[in-house]
């Protein structure tokens, strides 16, 4: 697959529907890192990789107006469904708009160093198998950085309807999904900001 020809396959979605518990319930998406909010940083890296870009969030969706995304959508299962609720919301959006896009790519709002070739690298492996593909680095899987075939929506809805669910990675594996290895570098492309200490560390990494 040529790198120039894959983007028309993909709807991107920034996953911003978490509770931000370790930020004392403050909205993590709007925490500032080197002059930009986390959501602005992720959008900046995600937009060139996809045809259209959504933000999946909860609460007052208007706070994301003017961020550069094509639309802001609400999770059908706020807080309870985890990142996969954002995948389902993106597929629901495609169905409502009657848009034939076979893949959804996810970008977590707390991952400001997302690789600029993430979607291309994942689709290199995923298109042939038609299965989900997620990033892996230094022996650790990062399933919120992933590409998801729209055709799995039935299985996804069944999974989200369960009262007790396994991890997101367990769902990936149940769909014969793949882990795609990315080389380690600094800053870690899959650095995840969960706490204020993480935010300070990310600021230091950008400074260097």
Structure description:
- With about 210 residues, the protein is α/β, with parallel strands linked by helices.
- It has one domain (about 5-205): Alpha-Beta Complex (Spore Coat Polysaccharide Biosynthesis Protein SpsA, Chain A).
- About 30% of the residues lie in helices and about 20% in strands.
- It contains six helices and nine strands.
- It has helices at about 40-45, 85-95, 120-130, 155-160, 170-175, 195-205, and strands spanning about 10-15, 30-35, 35, 50-55, 70-75, 105-110, 135, 140-150, 180.
- A seven-stranded mixed sheet has the order 5-4-1-6-8-7-9, sandwiched between helices. The chain has a two-stranded antiparallel sheet with strand order 2-3.
- The chain is globular, with a radius of gyration of 16 Å.
- The model has no long low-confidence stretch (mean pLDDT about 90).
Write the layout of secondary structure elements.
Elements: E1 10-16, E2 32-33, E3 36-37, H1 38-46, E4 52-57, E5 71-74, H2 83-97, E6 103-108, H3 118-129, E7 133-137, E8 140-149, H4 153-161, H5 168-174, E9 178-181, H6 196-207
Parallel strand pairs: 1-4, 1-6, 4-5, 7-9
Antiparallel strand pairs: 2-3, 6-8, 7-8
Helix pairs in contact: 2-4
- CATH level 4 superfamily: Spore Coat Polysaccharide Biosynthesis Protein SpsA, Chain A
Which structural category do the helix and sheet elements fall into? alpha/beta
Average pLDDT, to the nearest integer? Answer: 90
CATH structural architecture: Alpha-Beta Complex
| The CATH C-level class name | Alpha Beta
What is the total number of structural domains? 1
Calculate Rg over CA atoms: 16 Å
Give the SSE order as H and E letters.
Answer: EEEHEEHEHEEHHEH
Unreliable stretches, pLDDT < 50, 5 or more residues?
none
